[in-house]
Amino acid sequence: MALGSESFHMPILTIESTCDETAAAVISETGAVLGDCVATQEALHEKFRGVVPEVAARAHLERILPVIDSALKQSGITHREITAIAVADRPGLAGSLLVGLVAAKTLAIAWDKPLVAVNHLHAHLYACQLSSEHNVYPCVGLVVSGGHTSLYHCEGPIDLTYLGGTIDDAAGEAFDKVAAMLQLGFPGGPAVSELASQGNRQAYDFPRSLLKADHFDFSFSGLKTAVRYTIVGPGHQDFSKITLTQQSKADICASFEAAVVEVLVAKSSRAVNNYQCERLIVGGGVAANRYLREQLQQNATANGYEVVIADINLCTDNAIMGAIALEKIKRNEFASIDLDITPGLQRGF
Ligand code: KG4
Ligand code: ZN
Question: Are 129 and 156 a contacting pair, CB within 8 Å?
């Protein structure tokens, strides 16, 4: 179903349900946010200290229609005025993706609207464009989220070449696991970051995996194991009996954060240099991390390139970044009603 140029003056509905946030937004053709709703599932997953896929899928199912309804009501726009329905179809948890996709397809059929497929990782980077006054492309893009740590050469918003990514855990997952080991709650990133600000970043010499490798892959599982052994020693499983002082916990968080950030900054900086770019853009939940933001900025200034980091409210999962669908609509790139999900392989997206 092709979109005529006159109907392009109308807003789009965007749907996001790749992991544990159920989100919908209504975006005008100029990118203005007319309605926005995010239902977080943090409380549901907290007792498991991580996202449980089946619990997430069921919660999406309960929330998806009220969330879409709320975004539409906020916008004051009726479904008749909606021009297209955009949905994140990749990557993510299979059950979670499926709920968003089925909702989008059902509405597309019922309301007779075209469908646009959104790559969730490209959308995380597009959040940087939405946070900037000027065009951020071409650039190098770094996505740091709960499921992914990926570097791209971005010639445009939807013309991205994958340069490398994590071969095991994502940066956000490492934050969540360290928080779980230190009994700091879920999601772990904000809690680890908070405690790290009171700690000594040199207290522990944690590994900087693949820092010097001449490729753009990352690895964080060795770092996670090093933190684990520092907390309980090899072979021990029971983190509920740890007797660390608050200062030791802060030192572990600070040293862990320093290791993650050093690798992220060094490798993204090298990619900017290799691809002779003038700009680095950074999105995803971990991009909300204060120390990472500071270090990225310092390094960019020292090396003469610009860094654009997504606004804090656009770092974690949301449907506003689904505005990337407007770029696809401009190119007449619509999805067929047979669109299927492409769930979460770590690499290559
Ligand atoms: O992008 P996102 O909302 O979901 C995925 O696409 O995975 O990222 C969620 C991740 C979680 O691992 C969370 O702990 C992390 O982002 N995160 C942070 C911070 N805020 C969220 N990590 C470090 N520092 C933060 N301030
Ligand atoms: Zn995400």
Answer: no
